C-alpha cells in the first residue's frame, strides 16, 4: 500500500512539472461590504461629523455602504462587475454612488442597467398617449459598477448612500 | 406622494415596465435592512458579501383617551366609578408603557382617589407589503420567532390592532400570524367579520399600533356638603422610556350626585295649666309624659296664650324623611328659652328631670339638664342658645347622634310664665 502511494506521488509530480506556469496564474477577487452612518460628536469644543458602524438606524437616517474589493490572485481580473440591489426599506440618495468605472442603475430589479438619464418608463398621459418619464432616484432598484480591470494585488472600493424609509 | 404612486401602479403594470414599488412612509422597528452585493469577473467567477442593519425604535406620542362616569353618592368612597384609559401606540415598534393615574381636580369632597395604574406592552409595526381585507403584511422582526402565530413586534394573537387608511380607522382583533419565508415578512390576520373595505386594503408604509385598555377606579372621598354634587377630574399619564409623555383627563369629570336630605323640624307648644286653643295646626303627641289618654291635649304650631304662672310645654320634633339616602349625623336640638319671660326648664318629668326625650326607636326617657358636656342635655341660662340636647343614635353627653333615614326624635320641656 505504501509503495503504491509513492508511485502515485511521483506521477503527479511529473505531471505538474510538465504544465506551463501560465495555467496557475489566475485572479482571485473578494468583496466585503460595510454599513456606516454619520453622527455628530463634539471634539475640542467643536461639532464634527464622524462615521460609525451602522448597527441600528432610524427611519430617515442615511446608511453609507462601502464595498471594498481586492484581487489577491496572481493575474488581473477582467470585466469586474459589482451589482448591489438597493436594500428593501431604503431609497437611493441621488448622486451618492462613487463614480468608479462605469456606474449604472436599474429600475427593474437588475434586469437592465442604464445611466440615470436613460432610465425611463412609460406612462399614459392625459391625452391617453404613452409618455416617457425619467425615473427618479427613489425608483432605483439596483446599482452597478463595471470596472474593466483589477490588477493582481490591486484593490479599490465603491460606495453609495441610502435613506431608511 | 404615495397616493400618486398608487394611481400610477396599474398603468405601469399595463405597459409591462417594472418600476418603483410604493414608497414607505416609515419602516418598522427591528426590521433587517439587508444589503447583499455580488461581484463577478472574468466572465463567470463571483464573490459575495452582505451586511445587515437593524431599524431602531422611533419614540412617538401614544394616543390616550379616558372615560368618565357618574353615580349617586352613598357615603365615603361609595360608590366607585370606573374610568377606562385607552392607549394606542403610534410608534414603529413595541414598547413598554406606564399608565399613572392621578386626581387632577375635585370639588365638594376631601380625599378623592383614583387607583389602577399599570404597566403595559404595546406592539407596533409598519406594513411592508400589500394585505387583504382581513390581513396586513409586516416585516419579520430580527430575532423574533417565525413559527405560526408568533408574536410580531409585540403584536400577538388576540391583540387589538389599530390603523387608519383613507380616513377610516379600523380596530380588528388578531386571529393568527403567519411567516412568509420568501420575503421575510409576516401576515397578520383577523376574522372575516371584521373585514375592512376592499378600497382600504393596506399597502406598504402604514403604521399599525396595538390598543390596550387600563381600568381605573375612582372613589369620591368624603362629601363636604350634602346635597351638592361631587366632581373629580382624573388624569392618566402615559410614559415610556425615551418617549414623549402623553396624558388624558376625564372630560367631563366624574360626577357623584348628592340628593339633599329632607329634614322635618317643628316646634309646638301647649298651655298645660289652662288648656287653650292655640293658633296654627293642632298636633297631638301622646307619647310625651303627662299628655296621655283621654286628656291628651293638642300642641299648636303657632303658639298658645297664657298668663303669669301658667305652665307652657314645648315639644320639638325632628325626623329624617324624604328621598335622601343619607342618615343625619351629628344631630343636636338647640333652643333659646326667653328667660326674661319664662323660668328655666322645670323638673317636670320622671326623676325630677327637666327634659323629656323620645329616641329614634320611640323609646322615652328623661334627662337632667346641666352644664355643657355633663349630660346628654345641657342648659346654661346665659348662653344662646341656652338649651342643647344631643339627639339620635349614639348621642351622649359629649356626642351628637345620628338620625337614620325614616326615623325621628322628640324633645319636650316645660317652663312657667313669669
What does this structure look like?
The complex is a heterodimer of chains A (165) and B (418). Chain A is built from one helix and eleven strands; from the N terminus they run H-E-E-E-E-E-E-E-E-E-E-E. Chain A has 165 residues and is mostly beta strands. Chain A has one domain (19-164): Immunoglobulin-like, CATH 2.60.40. Chain A has a five-stranded antiparallel β-sheet, with no helix packed on it. In chain A, strands 5-10-7 form a three-stranded antiparallel β-sheet, with no helix packed on it. In chain A, a hairpin with a 2-residue loop joins strand 1 and strand 2 (46-53). Chain B is 3% helix and 44% strand. Chain B has one helix and 32 strands. The A-B interface holds A 27, 29-35, 54-59, 63, 65, 67, 69, 77-85, 87-91, 107-109, 111, 121-124, 130, 135-136, 138-141, 150, 164-165 and B 8, 11-12, 15, 17-20, 23-27, 31, 33-43, 45, 47-51, 53-56, 58, 92, 128, 139, 205.
**Oligomer description:** heterodimer
Give the CATH class of chain A: Mainly Beta
What is the string of SSEs of chain A from the N terminus onward?
HEEEEEEEEEEE
Question: How would you sum up the major sheet of chain A?
Answer: 5 strands, antiparallel
- Please tell me how large the radius of gyration of chain A is: 24 Å
Largest sheet of chain B: 7 strands, antiparallel
- Low-pLDDT regions of chain B: 1-25
* Ends apart, CA distance between termini of chain A: 67 Å
Total domains of chain A, how many? 1
Mean of pLDDT of chain A: 85
Radius of gyration of chain B: 40 Å
Shape type of chain A: flat
Amino acid at each position: 500500500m505504501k509503495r503504491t502511494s509513492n508511485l502515485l506521488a511521483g506521477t503527479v509530480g511529473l505531471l505538474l512539472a510538465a504544465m506551463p506556469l501560465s495555467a496557475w496564474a489566475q485572479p482571485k477577487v473578494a468583496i466585503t461590504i460595510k454599513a456606516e452612518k454619520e453622527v455628530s460628536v463634539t471634539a475640542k469644543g467643536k461639532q464634527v461629523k464622524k462615521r460609525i458602524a451602522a448597527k441600528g438606524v432610524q427611519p430617515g437616517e442615511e446608511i453609507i455602504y462601502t464595498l471594498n474589493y481586492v484581487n489577491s490572485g496572481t493575474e488581473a481580473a477582467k470585466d469586474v462587475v459589482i451589482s448591489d440591489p438597493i436594500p428593501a426599506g431604503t431609497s437611493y440618495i441621488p448622486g451618492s454612488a462613487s463614480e468608479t468605472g462605469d456606474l449604472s442603475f436599474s429600475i427593474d430589479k437588475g434586469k437592465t442597467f442604464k445611466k440615470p438619464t436613460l432610465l425611463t418608463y412609460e406612462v399614459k398621459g392625459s391625452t391617453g398617449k404613452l409618455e416617457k418619464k425619467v425615473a427618479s432616484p427613489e425608483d432605483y432598484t439596483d446599482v452597478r459598477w463595471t470596472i474593466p480591470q483589477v490588477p493582481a494585488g490591486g484593490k479599490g472600493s465603491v460606495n453609495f448612500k441610502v435613506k431608511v424609509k | 406622494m404615495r397616493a400618486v404612486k398608487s394611481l400610477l401602479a396599474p398603468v405601469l403594470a399595463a405597459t409591462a415596465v417594472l418600476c418603483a414599488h410604493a414608497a414607505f412612509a416609515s419602516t418598522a422597528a427591528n426590521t433587517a435592512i439587508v444589503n447583499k452585493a455580488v461581484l463577478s469577473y472574468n466572465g463567470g467567477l463571483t464573490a459575495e458579501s452582505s451586511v445587515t442593519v437593524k431599524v431602531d425604535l422611533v419614540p412617538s406620542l401614544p394616543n390616550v383617551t379616558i372615560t368618565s362616569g357618574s353615580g349617586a353618592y352613598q357615603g365615603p368612597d361609595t360608590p366607585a366609578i370606573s374610568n377606562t384609559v385607552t392607549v394606542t401606540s403610534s410608534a414603529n415598534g413595541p414598547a413598554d408603557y406606564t399608565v399613572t393615574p392621578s386626581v387632577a381636580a375635585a370639588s365638594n369632597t376631601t380625599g378623592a382617589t383614583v387607583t389602577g395604574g399599570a404597566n403595559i406592552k404595546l406592539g407596533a409595526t409598519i406594513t411592508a407589503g400589500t394585505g387583504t381585507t382581513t390581513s396586513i403584511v409586516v416585516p419579520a422582526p430580527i430575532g423574533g420567532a417565525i413559527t405560526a402565530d408568533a408574536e410580531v413586534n409585540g403584536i400577538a394573537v388576540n391583540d387589538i390592532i389599530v390603523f387608519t387608511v383613507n380616513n377610516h380607522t379600523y380596530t380588528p382583533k388578531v386571529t393568527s400570524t403567519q411567516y412568509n419565508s420568501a420575503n421575510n415578512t409576516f401576515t397578520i390576520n383577523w376574522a372575516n367579520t371584521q373585514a375592512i373595505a376592499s378600497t382600504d386594503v393596506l399597502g406598504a408604509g402604514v403604521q399599525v399600533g396595538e390598543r390596550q385598555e387600563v381600568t381605573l377606579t375612582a372613589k369620591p372621598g368624603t362629601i363636604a356638603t350634602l346635597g351638592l354634587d361631587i366632581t373629580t377630574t382624573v388624569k392618566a399619564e402615559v410614559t415610556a422610556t425615551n418617549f414623549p409623555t402623553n396624558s388624558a383627563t376625564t372630560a367631563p369629570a366624574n360626577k357623584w350626585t348628592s340628593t339633599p336630605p329632607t329634614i322635618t323640624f317643628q316646634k309646638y307648644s301647649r298651655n298645660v295649666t289652662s288648656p287653650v286653643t292655640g293658633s296654627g295646626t293642632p298636633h297631638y303627641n301622646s307619647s310625651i309624659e303627662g299628655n296621655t289618654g283621654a286628656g291628651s291635649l293638642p300642641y299648636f304650631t303657632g303658639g298658645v296664650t297664657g298668663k303669669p304662672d301658667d305652665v307652657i310645654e314645648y315639644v320639638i320634633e325632628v325626623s329624617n324623611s324624604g328621598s335622601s339616602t343619607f342618615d343625619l349625623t351629628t344631630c343636636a336640638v338647640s333652643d333659646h328659652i326667653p328667660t326674661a319671660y319664662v323660668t328655666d326648664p322645670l323638673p317636670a318629668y320622671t326623676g325630677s328631670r327637666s327634659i323629656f326625650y323620645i329616641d329614634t326607636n320611640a323609646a322615652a326617657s328623661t334627662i337632667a339638664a346641666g352644664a355643657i358636656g355633663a349630660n346628654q342635655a345641657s342648659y346654661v341660662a346665659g348662653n344662646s342658645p341656652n338649651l342643647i340636647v344631643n339627639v339620635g343614635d349614639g348621642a351622649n353627653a359629649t356626642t351628637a347622634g345620628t338620625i337614620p333615614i325614616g326615623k325621628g326624635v322628640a324633645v319636650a320641656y316645660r317652663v312657667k310664665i313669669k
